[in-house]
Amino acid sequence: MSEANYKTTPPPIDTMPKGVSYIVGNEAAERFSYYGMRTILVIFMTKYLMSSGGGIDPMSETEAKKWYHLFLSSVYFFPVIGAILSDWIWGKYRTILWLSVVYCLGHLALALDETRLGLSIGLGLIAIGSGGIKPCVSAHVGDQFGESNKHLISRVFGWFYWSINFGAFISTLLTPWLLDRFGPHIAFGVPGLLMLIATWVFWLGRKEFVHIPPGGKAFLEEALGPRGIKSLASLVPIYLLISIFWALYDQSGSSWVLQANNMDLNFLGHKWLASQVQAMNPILVLIYIPLFTYVLYPWINSFFPLSSVRKMGLGFFVMLPSFLIIAFVESGIQAGQTPSIAWHILAYVFLTAAEVMIYQTGLELTYTQAPNTMKSFLMSLYLLTVSLGNFITGFINGFIANPDGTSKLEGVSYYLFFSGLMAVAAVAFIFVAKRFKETSYIQGAPEAEGNP
Length: 452
Hints:
With 452 residues, the chain is mainly α. It is built from 16 helices and 2 strands. It has a single domain, classed as MFS general substrate transporter like domains (Growth Hormone, Chain: A, Up-down Bundle), CATH 1.20.1250.20. It has a two-stranded antiparallel sheet. Helix 10 (226-249) packs antiparallel against helix 16. The chain is globular and about 65 Å long.
């Protein structure tokens, strides 16, 4: 079947589109591969990294944190490139398929070469592949819906996010065990295999998907026209503040893991690996999504209308206790104590609640606020908040690093600094949210319905 014969508009149905199951299945496998690799990255760099001569050549903790956050910054920068290719030239389907191959090659490099060269090549290819497909996959989900079933979009973005965290949960438990038991080749190889499966599942769904053609010249006209500029102007202030959330959130995979090495890892009759504790995040997401959707949000909505930006504003304040708990744990470690890893689990309760309120809500908000020819591009700018947040964290860790590998901002003061940064962002978000007016653009809907 040639590309010209694929469906290019959503069918007039009021049920869930058939292509959604392939996208959700693809996303679960892809997220297994990404989070599996990412979960062990700091441990690999500080304990397993090899020199070109064959000996162990680990990084310092400060250097590893800088590499980790600059990698994440790169992953979430490349969505801009992927979105331009998708919305302007290739379309979402071909962009996702071709960049998934690049993604697979990155996993292969990590699995085969344990040196800094292999690390650099592998992380570079994964940043291009994973980053490039991110905005396209999210927008591709929304493209399957038309005017007659747009009421299901919110539900499917919940499923989509649920599949992300299902894959992340399994890989976060399994991959550290593979690294500990079998070493880096197997630990990085298994996520690579899952990415290959994800690519195959996505290809299987090609006949069921709605393939929205690339916008070409219309994309540029829309992006530079009144509607595109208006959408950007309304969303960018929100995005800038969300980047501060990510500056804290992604430290759960770096500074929190390093802190866990100095804690009592025995909990619920099991001794956890330091990097395995991250599994609390996806398992809590799996619990929170239905709990928030069917219980918490309707309950809050009975007191006052709970718009998207209000959900996100609540998330900013819910995020604060997570880092204050980590600062409390650090004070105990500095005092010579060995705090229980249960404190990290409590911190994840708050961090994950904030993530669901901010990130999941932001996916849906970005899709509905984007004009139809700019879906991937606006989604890429939303994902750029993760890049900016990790760049901020990577820059700060580079700035405070001393030549001997120590830090100018040690211990409790490090976590209190980021807590203060989050508090400022939370207050600022209140004023930004008050000025925000929601719009709705849905594929197949009359253009007039895209106006406020």
